[in-house]
Specification:
This protein is an alpha/beta fold and 357 residues long. It has 2 domains: 1-103 and 260-357, Isopropylmalate Dehydrogenase, CATH 3.40.718; 115-254, 3-Layer(aba) Sandwich (Isopropylmalate Dehydrogenase). It contains 11 helices and 12 strands. The protein has helices at residues 14-33, 47-53, 61-65, 83-97, 160-176, 194-206, 219-228, 240-253, 294-306, 310-325, 339-352, and strands spanning 2-11, 36-42, 70-75, 102-108, 124-130, 134-143, 151-157, 181-186, 213-218, 235-238, 261-265, 273-277. A 10-stranded mixed sheet has the order 2-1-3-12-11-4-5-10-8-9, with helices on both faces. The protein has a two-stranded antiparallel sheet with strand order 6-7. Strand 1, helix 1 (14-33) and strand 2 (36-42) form a beta-alpha-beta unit. Helix 10 (310-325) packs across helix 11. The longest helix is centred in the N-terminal third of the chain and has 20 residues, at 14-33. The radius of gyration is 20 Å and the shape is globular. The two termini are 20 Å apart. Bound molecules: nicotinamide-adenine-dinucleotide, potassium ion and manganese (II) ion. This is D-malate dehydrogenase (decarboxylating).
């Protein structure tokens, strides 16, 4: 029996609903397999926890998390706490504490899902988001607070080491995919220091990957290319901020923010990696039981792949695709199915898959 210890942090809003759904699906996979089991440990770290305790992560919390094989995360963000507090004190504290510098965001139109974009069926992208530096390095400040002279700075810091490791990761990803194509996205015309470093290091690293075809695009231009020529992109590497934005666009072009998964990876595996749907707490639909759990399910596929459970990952992805192809959708995709109905349908599919599947 292969056992995986999973730290579960549902967080806030629909994060709680979709992660509960994801756990049920993982449990169904374990039962189906008979050789695989999950030991889930729930952590109540959320905005409610913060309002009660004054912090998102208790003393020694990261050390406790470090013992797990992976972290399954929902969302953090509440109307009672400023977003910059919740983001930095929980999600970014984990990403940075565990050096999860590679954020991987696949985008692909699932069968049976409608996109507003013509030609969206050609989308098959992996966006690699640098996850530790740049605009999110945490440097900057405010002086002359409250005065007309007040200044706020957001200092974006890139190190050669940080840039090189994300480019290497992106080249490895591009090489592992059929098209072996990597697009560098920066804004080096306007951001003439850090972004120029990105460009330079990219073409240095490219020399080690002659089999990977490369090109480059400015971040504003790449948004038009994503819409007008989606089939010309495959693997994309971009900074923390730029990739955050273009990956939400990618999710919308492939149907809904509710579908898209992501992995925050510590590629060296010194620390656990963290897996989450890309969406947030969705205040407008939280508590209604109608959130789309597919993003959390696809996230579970990425977590299974990371844990070396290729068969279970394939089984789950096949079940997700059969579900979307059948036309049973949640409201964000124009359907009426609830989170629970979609979860039950996936669990049922897994139970009924033939053992050869
Ligand atoms: P959001 O992703 O929560 O919601 C944006 C829109 O997409 C909403 O209309 C929502 O209903 C819809 N949506 C998102 N996920 C859905 C799903 N699974 N099913 C159906 N519809 C879905 O983004 P937001 O409104 O910008 O942020 C709300 C809160 O979430 C904020 O506090 C924000 O900071 C936080 N947030 C957290 C994360 C994270 O934890 N990684 C990511 C994004 C936003
Ligand atoms: K999330
Ligand atoms: Mn985002």
């Amino acid at each position: 029996m292969r056992q995986h210890k999973i730290a579960v942090i549902p967080g806030d809003g629909i994060g709680i609903e979709v992660i509960e759904a994801g756990k049920q699906v993982l449990q169904a996979l374990a039962e189906k397999s008979g050789e695989l089991s999950f030991e889930f440990s729930d952590f109540p770290w959320s905005s409610d926890y913060y309002l009660e305790h004054g912090r998102y992560i208790p003393e020694g919390g990261l050390d406790e998390l470090a013992r797990f094989d992976a972290i399954y995360f929902g969302s953090v963000g509440s109307q009672q706490v400023p977003d910059h507090v919740s983001l930095w004190d929980l999600r970014l504290a984990i990403c940075q504490g565990f050096d999860q510098y590679a954020n991987v965001r696949p985008a692909r139109l699932l069968p049976g899902v409608n996109s507003r974009l013509q030609g969206a069926e050609k989308i098959d992208w992996v966006i690699i988001r640098e996850n530790s530096e740049g605009e999110y390095s945490g440097n900057g400040g405010r002086v002359h607070r409250g005065l007309p002279e007040e200044i706020g700075t957001e200092v974006s810091i890139f190190s050669r080491k940080g840039v090189e490791r994300i480019h290497r990761f992106a080249f490895e990803m591009a090489r592992s995919r059929p098209r072996k194509k990597l697009t560098l996205v920066t804004k080096s015309n306007a951001q003439r220091h850090g972004m120029v470093l990105w460009d330079e290091v990219f073409f240095e690293v490219a020399k080690d990957y002659p089999e990977v075809e490369t090109d480059r695009e400015l971040v504003d231009a790449v948004t038009t290319r994503m819409v007008l020529k989606p089939d010309t992109l495959d693997t994309v590497v971009a900074t923390n901020l730029h990739a955050d934005i273009i990956s939400d666009l990618a999710a919308a072009l492939t149907g809904s923010l509710g579908i898209a998964p992501t992995a925050n990876l510590n590629p060296e595996r010194t620390f656990p990696s963290m897996f989450e749907p890309i969406h947030g707490s969705a205040f407008d639909i939280a508590g209604q039981g109608i959130a789309n759990p597919v993003g959390a399910f696809w996230t579970a596929v990425m977590m299974l792949e990371h844990l070396g459970e290729a068969t279970a990952a394939e089984r789950l992805m096949a079940a997700i695709e059969r579900l979307t192809r059948s036309g049973i959708h949640s409201q964000d995709l124009g359907g009426t199915a609830t989170t629970r109905e979609l979860t039950q349908a996936i669990c049922e599919d897994i139970r009924q898959q033939s053992d050869q599947a």
